[in-house]
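If your schedule permits, I should be very grateful for your opinion on a structural question. Thank you for your consideration; the sequence and its tokens are set out here:

===
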Amino acid sequence: MNASNRQMTLRRYPEGMPQESDFQVISGAIPDIADGQVLGRAIYLTVDPYIRVHISPSMSIGYAPTTPLGAPIPGEAVLRVERSKHPDFREGDYVAGFSGWQDYAALQGDALRKVDKRLAPLSAHLGALGMPGLTAYAGMTKLSEAEAGQTVFVSAALGGVGAVAGQLARIKGCRAVGVSSSAEKCSYAVETLGYDACLDRTKQDFAEQVAAACPNGIDVNFENAGGPVFWTAMQNMNAYGRVIVCGLIAVYNEDAPPAGPDLSQDLLRAIALKRLVVKGLMVADFWSLRPQFLEEVGGMIKDGRLHSKEHIVVGIENAGVAMMEMLSGRNFGKTVVRIADD
């Protein structure tokens, strides 16, 4: 066991896109555990868009408490149990829980879930088999009302949520159209993940590409981005379409509303004229689906119907850089940070 507990913390709150200088690694004591707790040693840390909201005093309002300066940045991890005072866990078990970005954490056993290494690599339990995968599963099975033959449009198509949502749409027999940030990513989305089409949002003719890829319009917009991608999707929505608002990664680094005209009337008009159903997606509403999700999606991964790709960064000292890569689209797959050997 390491002699100290490394923690990735904030030196200051980011303004706009986070910078390396906003983060710092500090060392503290390895925590003791009480009855009902386990001591977990983190192996993989998650890097997800929601963490950017946690470290913004303005964005976190109404969502979650703002992370205090000097405290471990929040997030889920896959951990190895080092010590246990909980009857359901023993030393050597692998678990997942919200430990934050640090080596060791004292965690309530009742808040942990066991991780099965035989089902998928440990890193996948923070992506396709973790909270992002459950989010996609809940959106597609409980909110989308997607039917075979309909078009499902997925922004951030290779992210932790988007990649699973798009593959589930394809497995349901829908036409899956994704959006990403490079030709290389789009090729992977089509050739490996099975998207019917994937569009590069950085191209000048992006709007024309969306119209061409969705000749029969869009029935479900699985929205992870916001910004121009969202407005382009709205222009192609079919009557009685469904908009699932899962994330808004395009604006997470904005400290104030974008300059320009108020477009809320255009949005409300489109919703009214097309009789759209807009649904907000928060995974906390769907924890009860986890056993069903693990059985179904775990089975899909095992038999090769669904693929899991991780963008793995090594070293807790690089977790801040990993966040910057994820927010700017420089990652390729679900971003995780490996901080210890398995």
In short: The mean pLDDT is 94. Residues 289 and 298 are 13 Å apart (CA to CA). The radius of gyration is 20 Å.
